[in-house]
């Protein structure tokens, strides 16, 4: 009987200590000394900036070290020019098809399909239609790079996800897929 | 009487015609009576000092350690000085109750209770410094090897500061148990004499139902002896571990193998001085002159003299080794102590610790209450400066001259120290009015061997005309 009381007491104490935990809110903290950043964090919010975001846009026209601005404009003329003139800066030694395949699988295959036949998962599940087969279009490495950079019609720009070098890798991989179709 | 042999050369430890009942009455009197005005004045002063200390600690914890005078070079100063000082003071209590028990010293019986109380109260003061000198004392529990959610992140057992945690906490708990065990028969005495239901209830709880049966006494004695046997290595190891805080470092002036025994000797030295200070006052105010006799004071003075001489030898050894080592850093450390900007603290330490106990060689001085009282205070001042000198003078000038600096304490440093003194006296004053300050059960056990009455009886029975024992009072 006495043991029972002890168990009951333990349960009561345990529930008192856990009762205040709320799954829908962050838990209580014990002396959060270095939990919150003093410095500005990339995706943080701060009233120091007009839009409240700590990630501010760089000044227009500034060029970071190691970056080459893309000189073709986002228009039909730009597309044609890129298709005709733009060439890959990668030589055969720096083309990394396994990595390019991984990048393609992550960013492209969901719509274009693993084989580039326009039968991506989203198309198969009829979330949307109208993704062309690479074989049906005339594309060059320059046009692929241009489209991945700016997007075309329904496709959005992938310049945020892929660096310039990665886009060139993907462009080479796309041409490889096209040759296999 | 005839069956007992007691050397006639031994002086009585209980003076006056005291019987068992007188001992009870004398010990119970301060507890059963009401506090007088002086007690309240002393208590108020101590409480004010304590509260001021609480304020200073609150300010430190709330604002930061930067409120203290410590700086980047001298990271340890008054905090650790006071810590070591208080721990050292505590050591005499255990020494009196444990070591003197092992050596069967009967004179310890009148003083061991208060000495142990002093131990416990001063270890409590000491224990506050390791906590509040932390930058983040609220994380102090991290020093404990507790299984946790940081992948069971544990402490490193290589640091003497961690050993300090174990040493001090063990020391406090063992001392407390030892003290309380000894208190049981005395609390039972107070329980049995209690007049009001309230005091009856209080001392019933405190005495754990002690009934004084033969079996209880037999086990009581065994426990006391075992605890004394445990407390003796403890008392030596605790201050050794405290000394490791310095001795295991690479700082010239700290890195010495002599520190462990030298710190222990210093601890006994300062602790006995503190016991002397307190008991000289207590015997007067609580009218316990019959139990805490001039002989007790003299014997404590002799211990002070011996340990003071050990400490003096240690100082000379350190100086010799510094010279003999050929290490210029070590040599400079001692040159700096003697002639640097803190020469005055080194001089104070040397004067108080080496010179003052040597006057105890004169019987006239060591049997003078006033002289003993003054010297006991001087010794504690000296021992405070010893720790200050070791800590600050070794730190403020060491390997890189570009890191040389000075240390200047702030009022917060001082306030914390004053607060611990206040807290110590708050506890001690409360103790002296609610606890039996003399282990009456033990004193009664030497009544028939060492009291003046029985010694006189024995002398008369044997026709012994040796009355040398009574010439001093």
TrEMBL record, chain A:
Database matches in SUPFAM superfamilies: Cytochrome c
Top-level taxon of the source organism: Bacteria
Residue intervals of the Cytochrome c domain: 95-178
Span of the signal peptide: 1-24
Keywords: Heme, Iron, Metal-binding, Signal
Pfam families (UniProt xref): Cytochrome_CBB3
GO MF annotations, alphabetized: electron transfer activity; heme binding; metal ion binding
PANTHER family, A to Z: LIPOPROTEIN-RELATED (PTHR40394), QUINOL:CYTOCHROME C OXIDOREDUCTASE MEMBRANE PROTEIN (PTHR40394:SF2)
Protein name per Swiss-Prot or TrEMBL: Cytochrome c
UniProtKB/TrEMBL annotation, chain B:
Positions with biased composition (Basic and acidic residues): 458-473
Pfam families: NrfD (PF03916)
Membrane-topology descriptor: Multi-pass membrane protein
Cellular compartment(s): Cell membrane
Identification of the protein by name: Hydrogenase
GO annotation, cellular component aspect: plasma membrane
Primary location class: membrane
Region Disordered: start-end pairs: 453-473
